[in-house]
Specification:
The chain is α/β, with parallel strands linked by helices. Helices cover 46% and strands 14% of the residues. The chain has ten helices and eight strands. The longest helix has 26 residues.
Length: 304
């Protein structure tokens, strides 16, 4: 019998080869493959209708723990550009996918040039925090990186991409100003939160919100559940600091955050969009709507 590993490699190679032959030749638009939904949204806004954009990890899905599928292999094999966040966000699966698919696509790291937050003593050592997009000024930097990559790769679309990039920059600047105004309504002593895992460091740094703790002491959802002792210490710290609210996230298990809120005696706020956008029609279907939804939820919970 053929070994399982050999069978899997043969299947991946066959899928990738077929995709490369039948996919690129049949398309009339360049294909940009983004690692996850936030990058895909920014790429669609910058690239416009003349460029096809797909996300490997779609809405309401966790890019920290993604397991690539044969469909992912096909997409990657056909790609002209691969957009990745970097900073450890894709946890190695994207590297493996690029190798197994045999893609010749240009890889672009969207977080290049952003000043990364590193471990804060809650278990991350000196690892970078990859959740840079929760600060719209960082999202603007990512959009600029994407725009340059698209312009360089598809120069016949230079004028449209340039115009789109300028518009996106203005829109993100307006979003940043809107968030500042909303946060200013929260009493300064109540500007502190606890989240499911460590995702709001950039939001906090930009808008003066202190992340007083996280249910999972990690930048990734791959971290195991906290021990009973860790849980009790966090609950005691929340009570001592007077944290007004705890927030779960839309891609994780809300039960832990709910238990912590109950044990701490504080409000459990609405789930926030942290590691992905929401599905079409949801409050977090686009980058801008996600940021506005999260801001409204935080402001409402901390202003009570």
């Amino acid at each position: 019998m053929m070994p399982r590993a050999f069978c899997l490699m043969a299947l991946v190679t066959l899928v990738a080869g077929c995709a490369t032959r039948s996919g690129k030749d049949d398309r009339d638009k360049p294909l940009v493959v983004a690692s996850f939904s936030v990058l895909a949204d920014l790429a669609k806004r910058v690239g416009g209708d003349e460029i096809e954009v797909v996300a490997i990890v779609g809405p309401d899905s966790d890019a920290h723990t993604h397991n690539p599928t044969p469909a992912d292999v096909r997409r990657m094999a056909e790609a002209d550009i691969v957009l990745e966040l970097g900073a450890g966000f894709e946890s190695g699966w994207l590297d493996r996918l690029c190798v197994s698919s045999g893609t010749r696509a240009r890889r672009i790291v969207a977080s290049d040039g952003i000043a990364l937050i590193r471990g804060d003593g809650r278990g991350q050592s000196d690892e970078p925090d990859p959740h840079v997009w929760h600060d719209p000024t960082n999202a603007a930097g990512m959009a600029e990186v994407i725009g340059k990559a698209l312009s360089d790769s598809f120069p016949w679309q230079l004028e449209k991409i340039g115009a789109n990039s300028k518009r996106v920059k203005v829109e993100l600047e307006a979003l940043d100003e809107w968030i500042k105004v909303q946060i200013s309504s929260i009493p300064p002593e109540r500007r502190k939160i606890v989240t499911s895992h460590d995702t709001f460091g950039y939001f906090g740094r930009r808008y003066g919100i202190r992340v007083a703790g996280t249910v999972l002491p990690s930048f990734s959802t791959e971290y195991g559940e906290p021990s009973a002792a860790e849980f009790s210490r966090l609950a005691a710290a929340i009570r001592a600091e007077g944290v007004p609210a705890i927030f779960a996230d839309t891609t994780g298990n809300p039960a832990l955050a709910g238990r912590l809120a109950e044990e701490s005696g504080v409000l459990l706020g609405p789930p926030l969009y942290t590691d992905s956008l929401g599905p079409p029609g949801s409050p977090g279907a686009t980058y801008d709507s996600m940021m506005r939804h999260n801001t409204r939820c935080i402001v409402e919970a901390l202003s009570r």
